[in-house]
Amino acid sequence: MLRLCGVHLHVEGGENLPVQEPVIYVSNHSSLLDIPVLVAALPHRLCFLYKKGLERIPFFGWVLRRMPYVPITRRALDAHWQMELTRQRVRSYGLSPVVFAEGGRSPDGSVRPFRRGALILAQSLSLPIVPVAIAGTHALLPPHTLRFRPGSARVRIGAPLEVPPDLGRRAQEEWLQALRERIAGWVAEMSSQTHPHQWTHAPSWNTSLN
Predict the structure, then answer these.
(1) 147: helix, strand or coil
(2) Fold for domain 7-191?
(3) What are the strands of the beta sheet with 129-135, ordered from one edge?
(4) pTM (2 decimals)?
(5) 117-125 and 169-191 are packed helices; what angle lies between their axes, rounded to 10 degrees?
(6) Using CB atoms within 10 A of its CB, is residue 121 exposed (0-12), middle (13-18) or buried (19+)?
(7) Residue 199: its pLDDT value, please?
(8) CA-CA distance, 208 to 114, in Å (whole number)?
(9) Which stretches does DSSP call E strand in 39-157?
(10) Do the Cβ atoms of 113 and 101 come closer than 8 Å?
């Protein structure tokens, strides 16, 4: 998919990737391209936690529904089974959850505040968090469109971070803020090195996404 879209992928920090044990990857999110970019950059055996509304996208949604991923809704009543399904994916299949900690795509490419779900999941499963930063995808495929631009995307993978098991609410928020600042700093640094190419050979579809 990346080759078809003319995306050149640059990955840093491959030495930080775990060899066998599951971890929780926490990433920023600003484009539909983020999922194929992370599939290409990270090891196999991933379990994406994705917004259920993405299942409505032609072909892309069909693929999501048939993968061992976990659809996330905004309904509080669904939170328990979503957490249990994620635990099952980890314990039964050894999959590593991938969490877009902002809770959805950033409309302008900036890194928005992180939600607590990834931290709670890490504490529940006693798994380390691996921070991941993605830069360039927002310019190549912004939200609300399927019009691609060819160019470069960059991914930086940080060292695993152990999450203290007994953090209170305030300490959780401070921990997440520090994690967000680290990832946002990487995104800003890599964005200065990333430049989309011209549109001339870009495949495009006149399809808008609400």
Answers:
(1) strand
(2) Glycerol-3-phosphate (1)-acyltransferase (3.40.1130)
(3) 7-12, 151-157, 129-135, 24-27, 96-100, 46-51, 70-72
(4) 0.80
(5) 110
(6) buried
(7) 35
(8) 27
(9) 46-51, 70-72, 96-100, 129-135, 151-157
(10) no
In DSSP terms, 78 is beta-bridged to none
Residue 10: predicted pLDDT? 95
Give pLDDT, residue 205. Answer: 31
Q: Any idea where the domains of the chain sit in the sequence?
A: 7-191
Structure tokens, 66: 């048939």
CB atoms within 10 A of CB 94: 12
- Phi, psi (rounded to 5 degrees) for 90: -75, -50
What pLDDT was estimated at residue 81?
A: 62
Amino acid letter, 61: G
pLDDT of amino acid 110? 93
Q: Which distant-in-sequence residues (6+ apart) come within 8 Å of 165 by Cβ?
A: 123, 126
Crossing angle for the helix pair 79-93 and 117-125, to the nearest 10 degrees: 50
Q: Using an 8 Å Cβ cutoff, are 99 and 24 in contact?
A: yes
Q: What is the mean pLDDT of each run of 10 residues along the chain (210 residues)?
A: 86 87 93 91 83 75 75 66 73 85 89 90 90 95 80 95 88 94 96 57 34
Rounded Cα–Cα distance for residues 143 and 160 (Å): 30
Is residue 111 within 8 A of residue 187, CB to CB? The reply is yes
What residue type is assigned to position 177 of the chain? Q
* Residues near 22 by beta carbon (within 8 Å), at least 6 away in sequence: 45, 90, 94, 95, 96, 97, 125, 127
